[in-house]
Amino acid sequence: MKALLKVGYTCNNNCVFCHSSAHRRHPDLTTAQLLRKVDLCAAAGRTMVVLSGGEPTIRPELFTWAERIAALDMDVGLVTNGVVLAYREVVERLVRTRLRYVYLSLHGGTAKVHNSLVRTDAFEHALAALANLSGRGLDLSVNCVVTRTNVDHLRDVVDAVLPFPDVALKLSMVEPKGGGDRLFDHLMPRVAHAAERVSDAIRYGIERAGGSSARFRHGAIPLCLVPGLEDRFSDLKTHGYATMVEVGEADYFPVDDLNKVQPEEPCRGCALSGPCPGLYAGYHAVHGAAELRPVHDRPRSGSFEYALEALVTTAAEPNRCPLRDDGEGVTPWDRGRTLFVREGERIVRFRCTSRDFSDAELERTKLTHGQVYADLSRESAPQDVARPAAKLRRSELCSGCPEHDRCTGLYEPVLEHAPMRDDARVRELLATLTGDVLDVGSGHGAYQDVLGPLAAAGTIRCRGVDGAAEPFAEADAHFDHVLLLRQWNCVREPRRMLESLASALRPGGSLTIVDRVASGVARERPQGARAETGPRSSERYRNDEPSDVVRLARGLPLSARERFDVGPGTSDQWLVRFERA
Hints:
Helices cover about 25% and strands about 25% of the residues.
């Protein structure tokens, strides 16, 4: 995993959209300050330190830094404008000192466009740097920031990088930050237009490169606006970054997407919301979300995995926190993606790298819902995560801690029977049913031991329909009760389903909906290998919770009479029970 280390804000370019333009007079790091941060990377188990700025290559200490990084058995990376790397001897010396990754800026395919954006004569130097870097086995990427100046000239950028077959090109929407914020109206294209032109350039590049799809990618553009190219999304996480540190910060912070938003309307329930970057918050504040086109007909995962990253200690003291008291630190760890688990004297660190879930979804699952588990199974991927797994709950050491709300937390397995306890209420409700019952998505084995005897005794007259995929249509309202049990998230069009089920109920009848929220499972390596080859659970389109169901029922003749929400002390199962007005 990479760590991004900003060495200062001094630069030999003067990009019109520069994030750091307001900080140019901030003192750059001294070598002593920088090497202390390098040591922190080594202690955290990072495999690469990526130097950024400003422009890191203009610092005379560059080779000293690279040698120290290599001496600590880490690789060196650079985020650079490439001007200094136009000198071949500089590149050769850096490669000898474990330079393995370069992320180089090229904002136009011609000198006129590129130089107008960087406000210096740098185009030829950037191309010379690419020539010097290409063919050396490096992880080599070019980033082009898409603005109103170059948005209609992106094919030229593709043409400029095509001669270098090992170069990946990323076309990134300009961020309203620094220069991008001050010159918003001058620089910011409408996101739908940018998406159209970026898509055109990517397809052009694929065609010209003979189908080399991995070379051309996009960033900071909502996935619903690049249909067919969703898998070509790229950001710091896809490049393997875990943490970063600004010049004035004493320690690293996790890489996050807090500068972007997925508006509740229209993004809630979109099947692409997990990997999607959303909109820049500054863009959304000005232009809103009317350009977005959410997708609701594609399946998504209902769980994610925390994979073993490191054994922290086998001699943990009972009343000491490894993050606050023993040097692991609070700030470097992503609150949703990092999971510390203590069992006795053993503390293990897990990490989630899934892009099926956004950072916000991961935090909600882990910290708000408390739905993280340790896999105890000896089989392949479990269909029901709650049963062959131990619930993980935040340690008592976290209670009252001043770092509680910004820390990833320490978790411990607990022995409890929350799934059986929470499901008992569902069974109680089912046992009270009388009259005509419609079971939508019928035949769910978990409740046949309750419904079967009622039907056999004539207490209920049960009709089952396989209606989870499409809304159920019923001409006459004649059911006393409607059940949608563990099928809600499998429904493609939930609002239409609610409308049809409400119409099938007699006045005073009940509609009971039960399903599960998303969950995370910590697995050590043998368990993870089994899970990857195991069977998958049924197809779902969302990971809704009761508030989503109640929101979708607004305006319908349905009143919520009972609601069971998920939390850290419950299983992953929720319930909503409506009454027909």
